Amino acid sequence: MKRIPFTLLAAVLTFSLGACGGGNQQTQPPAEKPATESPSTTAPSGSYDAATAETLFKNTCAGCHGQSLEGAVGPNLQKIGSELTKDQILEVLNKGKGAMPPGLVKGTDAENIAAWLADKK
């Protein structure tokens, strides 16, 4: 009887840890968009592609931070731009923080997500 709760706990932990570690896949950035791009993709924290940032977030970060940035295993990020700048968010993405491992997203993908998150206020 004691094996069932332990087995369930092991399965939940395995799933949780697996969800946070899936960021080793690199995605290709989309082709350049024309200068007549809608204002929803360019914001105060700099130029970024919101659709790509959201897709990257959902594929890499949502396992811990929730599909709507509501937080789960990781903290709520719905208003992270009120607390951290783009550069500070980028530093967390690059170096990790707490239980978050470093480098789940890298390069322009990390910059894109950091700019997108910085506008969440």
Q: What would a concise description of this structure say?
A:
This protein has 121 residues and is mainly alpha-helical. It is 45% helix and 3% strand.
Architecture overview:
The structure is a single chain. The protein is mainly alpha-helical. The protein has one domain: Cytochrome Bc1 Complex, Chain D, domain 2, CATH 1.10.760.10. Helix content is 45%, strand content 3%. It contains five helices and two strands; from the N terminus they run H-E-E-H-H-H-H. Strands 1-2 form a two-stranded antiparallel ribbon. Helix 2 packs across helix 5. It is globular. The termini are far apart. About 30% of the residues have low confidence.
The CATH topology comes to Cytochrome Bc1 Complex, Chain D, domain 2
Termini, distance in Å?
48 Å
Discrete helix count: 5
Helix content: 40-55%
Give the name of the CATH superfamily: Cytochrome c-like domain
The CATH architecture designation is: Orthogonal Bundle
Q: Evaluate the radius of gyration.
A: 16 Å
- Residue share in β-strands: under 5%
CATH class descriptor name:
Mainly Alpha
What is the average per-residue confidence, as pLDDT, rounded to a whole number?
A: 77
Please summarize the sheet with the most strands.
Answer: 2 strands, antiparallel
Q: pLDDT below 50 for ≥5 consecutive residues: which ranges?
A: 6-19, 21-42
Give the topology string: H per helix, E per strand.
Answer: HEEHHHH
What is the tally of beta strands?
2
Shape: globular
Tell me the strand order in the biggest sheet: 1-2
Tell me the count of domains: 1
Judged by helices, strands and strand pairing, the structural class is mainly alpha
